[in-house]
Specification:
alpha/beta; Lyase, Ornithine Decarboxylase, Chain A, domain 1; TIM Barrel; eight-stranded parallel beta barrel; 13 helices; globular
Length: 432
């Protein structure tokens, strides 16, 4: 058995007055690679993925890491080498998985990849059929018709699951809740059987699984079990109908703790897996799960530098060189990220500030009215729990270069993405 250090949920710890990741000083990394930058603990990413795999050891399963949480090639490679599969939502993410695999392993990694998303295009389907992915998680009848058409054109059978919408409510931010009939996702579970049966005679479609994904950042395990129980009823009906359903894809969405440092990831995974197992009972299926945030979220921090302090009347602003284009979660989901100084301040004084970026939007903030140690111009801070939906949601808005990424593994740091250049930004443009 592998040993896990589980004292804290985060791989960032204060050592000798400085924040470190796996023994590497964040200040040193910021000096070497500039700011803002993203720093990740490879060790934690691997541990988190392993938590799911260990908890599921009794069952045939594949952990299909949700690529959109953090799609950097080095991270995909690391997880693929550990045996993880992938959950992709675009042709671009398929290209990433294949690039991370490298030529020799592309077919093998594709065979552990499921393709989710409500708007797959013919081109994306063609690429995924040609790569030989495990299955398509199909979200509408129209999509299933197009998939049949593309499979026929390619002369291959397409394995598919319907992503069902179980109409289960999960407490999370409305923008990341997906399992209610009011959402655009999936096919109403009451209609799914009819859809499976009406395509059952297709020569080009192979009904392989049933999938569900009820949302993201879900902290309770009960909604997962409730959704899975509904899926399993459907699996039994489909098998009675003579369909060879072998896979059940329980989706992703297990939440992390953004505020409290003492979150027990291992216990959370144990509770999650136990509730899935209970719902599954002794049903003979290959279980797929698609965790994203839980694997990479707490492993990463964004590290900006304070460029200015500013007072507007009563209000104090700390302006950093990172902005909403680097980490949009506060603006998009009113998300909370802990902010800590990278170097322990000499004084214990605190003040109430807004931490903001330089982008020309009032939505460009990391914290409102936050009590923080007094930060001076030039100080480094860490935006914690930024490993998921941080860099992967970053953009070039305001013609800002996307931040570099550093991966720390076994006490050593390596640059896995360098900062962009302006020339790269303009490369696709012409002057007319
Ligand atoms: C986004 C997504 C996931 C991952 O969600 P997390 O909350 O990051 O675990 C898994 N499956 C599907 C279909 C998704 O869209």
């Amino acid at each position: 058995m592998q040993q896990f250090e589980n004292e804290s949920s985060r791989p960032f710890t204060m050592g000798e007055g400085e924040l470190c990741c796996g023994g590497v000083s964040l200040r040193a990394l910021a000096e070497e690679f500039g700011t803002p930058l993203y720093i990740y603990s490879a060790d934690q990413i691997l541990q988190r993925a392993q938590l799911f795999r260990s908890a599921l050891w009794q069952r045939t399963h594949t952990v299909c890491y949700a690529v959109k949480a953090n799609s950097s090639l080095a991270i995909l490679r690391m997880l693929g080498e550990q045996g993880c599969g992938f959950d992709i939502v675009s042709g671009g993410e398929l290209a990433r998985v294949l690039a991370a695999a490298g030529e020799g392993r592309a077919a093998e990694w594709a065979a552990r990849t499921v393709f989710s998303g409500v708007g797959k295009t013919a081109e994306e389907m063609d690429a995924a059929l040609s790569a030989g992915i495990l299955m398509f998680n199909v979200e509408s009848e129209a999509e299933l018709r197009l998939l049949e058409n593309r499979a026929s054109a390619a002369g291959v059978r397409a394995r598919f699951a319907l992503r069902v919408n179980p109409d289960v409510f999960a407490e999370t931010h409305p923008y990341i809740s997906t399992g209610l009939s009011a959402h655009k996702f999936g096919i109403a579970i009451a209609l799914a059987r009819h859809v499976y049966v009406s395509f059952a005679t297709s020569q080009w479609l192979e009904p392989t699984g049933v999938s569900v994904h009820i949302g993201s950042q879900i902290r309770q395990v009960e909604p997962f079990a409730a959704a899975l129980a509904r899926v399993l009823d459907l699996v039994q009906q489909l098998r009675e109908d003579g369909l060879p359903i072998r896979y059940v894809d329980a989706g992703g969405g297990l939440g992390i703790e953004y505020a409290d440092a003492h979150f027990d990831a291992r216990e959370q995974v144990a509770r999650y897996v136990a509730s899935l197992q209970q719902a599954l009972g002794d049903l003979d299926v290959h279980l797929l799960i698609e965790p994203g945030r839980f694997v990479v979220g707490q492993a990463g921090a964004g590290v900006p530098r304070v460029v200015y302090n500013k007072h507007n009347g009563e209000k104090k602003f700390v302006i950093t060189d990172a902005a909403m284009n680097d980490l949009i979660r506060p603006a998009l989901y009113q998300a909370h990220h802990e902010i800590v100084p990278v170097v322990q301040p000499a004084s214990a004084a605190v003040e109430i500030v807004d931490v903001v970026g330089p982008v020309c939007e009032s939505g460009d903030f990391f914290a409102h009215d936050r009590t923080l140690p007094v930060l001076e111009q030039g100080d480094l801070v860490a935006l914690l729990d930024a490993g998921a939906y941080g860099q992967s949601q970053s953009s070039n808005y305001n013609t800002r270069l996307r931040a570099p990424e550093v991966l720390v593994q076994g006490g050593k740091a390596r640059l896995i993405r360098r900062r962009e250049t302006y020339l790269e930004l303009f490369a696709g443009e012409s002057l007319g």
